[in-house]
Amino acid sequence: MAAELTETDAAAAHARLDTLISWNADWKDLRVAVLGLGVTGFAVADTLTELGADVLVLAPSADDDRARILEVIGAQLLRHPLDSVPDELARFAPELVVASPGFHPDHPVLEWAGRSGVAVWGDIELAWRVRDKVGSADWILVTGTNGKTTTVQLTATLLAANGLRAAPCGNIGVPVLDAVRDPSGFDVLVVELSSYQLHHLPKTGPGAVHPWASVCLNVADDHLDWHGSPEAYRAAKATVYENTRVACVYNRADEVTMHMVEEAEVEEGARAIGFGLDTPGPSDLGVVDGILCDRAFLEERRTSALEIITVGELEPRGLAAPHIVQNILAASALARSYDVPVGVIHDALGEFRLDAHRIETVAEAGGIRWIDDSKATNPHAAEASLRAFGPVVWIVGGLLKGVDADALVAAHVARLRAAVVIGVDRTALVTAFRRHAPGLPLFEVVADDTETVMPEAVALAASVAEAGDTVLLAPAAASMDQFADYADRGRRFHEAVRARLGGEADGDTAPHDQAGEV
């Protein structure tokens, strides 16, 4: 059985960790256990071995290439199911555990660390402590249930358009540790943070992040299977605002985000900046007569506003859906906090394009529009997508992650032509449709073969869609029940639509990204 550390050993370890606040601190021979060998876990192990730490990586499985590299750089690897605490971990006697984002708080190894007095960090705390390797970039933090990636990409684009070296990183796919170690260096890191990463982030002490600006875009119940309750999920999200130096950006349409700002401990002089689709107040960004306006970052904000761009200009670029306009306003607020002129923002938006699988038009044929919003991996994201279209043949379903979709169905049945339910959690969705819309044409794809799910779903949608309709893939659920990730789900939707329509389809399919779902 795994042994627990003595109080004396634990106290000594914590005292040493408090001194590790720079790349140039003494990390040599620090015993660190790293949980997981995905993209984040590998970046953690690579960083720590470069710092001279003694690293043991524990993972249920390991990519062969990463395993070989670990051996080369001098880290140990233990393949173990981790359904219990490995004896090898106790013998290693770690002074620190760094957990990859996917490990639940009640994971046996993390509970063991808690009992043993071993500190637990996430990758974000480690990155903050060693951020001075190449200069010391400012950090802008972005979280929210939906829209994080789009807002991070927008913000980085706007900053770069003003001549700044800006790196989008974090949950977006590029580990923050890779960004802080990039030899070219950056002026600003725009960091996407998941609730998992925020859970491990301290609010005070040497590991607490002090961002230039921060935003929580919105909050709706999600990842309840991981956090255990809506309250725990919201508490994790609220951490994004702690210690903000210049601007706490919040969603005026989501009071939860406003209360988060009110309750956060921030640095003196930090401002609360609201954004929304309505008329902005003197410290807000908003929309007036179809014009996106800034009333926050100008001296005459009580009597004047600066025009950013019009909704009409955004329309041909595929950026006029209400939830995308909200993302643009949030990103503009973050960029304006860094003194990016509105003219630069206007011009940069002219070049910006949404990621694949985010309200992406796949094809139009016979008056029917086929839209891929596979990235709508929870009900809140799907609701935003549904609001942008109508009438809709809705392809929905997957892994609901403990979230109840009944209210989503009830709110949008009036705009539906039909529904096609996919995924393993079909029962709850089918029950909701039968309860709230018993007369709605409803189809189930019962196949569990990845190769056939989307062709069947597309065929069923095509059988009921009429001219003027939108066939919308907005699953409101995670994808890993039947697909590798949401990008794989979206790609297969594209392929099935193209195969179905053949030469009838108008438009080109955009190149697709590699994506994860966190």
Helix count from the secondary structure assignment: 20
| Distance between the ends | 32 Å
Tell the overall outline. globular
- Rg over CA atoms, rounded to whole Å, is 24 Å
What value does the average pLDDT take?
Answer: 92
Largest sheet: number of strands, sense, barrel closure: 9 strands, mixed
How many β-strand stretches? 20
Oligomeric status: single chain
Query: In percent, how much strand structure appears in the residues?
Result: 15-25%
Q: Unreliable runs, pLDDT <50, ≥5 residues?
A: 505-518
Going across the major beta sheet, what is the strand order? 7-8-6-9-10-11-12-13-14
- What share of the residues lie within helices? 25-40%
Structural class: alpha/beta
Structural write-up:
This protein is of the alpha/beta class. Helices cover 36% and strands 18% of the residues. The strands form three sheets. A nine-stranded mixed sheet has the order 7-8-6-9-10-11-12-13-14, sandwiched between helices. Strands 15-16-20-17-18-19 form a six-stranded mixed sheet, sandwiched between helices. A hairpin with a 2-residue loop joins strand 12 and strand 13 (291-294). It is globular.
Question: What is this entry, summarized?
Answer:
This protein has helices at residues 7-17, 39-50, 64-73, 87-92, 108-116, 123-129, 148-161, 176-180, 195-199, 224-227, 230-238, 255-263, 311-314, 322-337, 342-349, 379-387, 406-412, 426-436, 450-464, 486-501; strands spanning 31-35, 54-59, 76-79, 96-99, 119-121, 138-143, 166-170, 188-192, 213-216, 247-251, 271-275, 284-288, 291-294, 306-310, 360-365, 368-372, 392-396, 416-421, 442-444, 470-473.
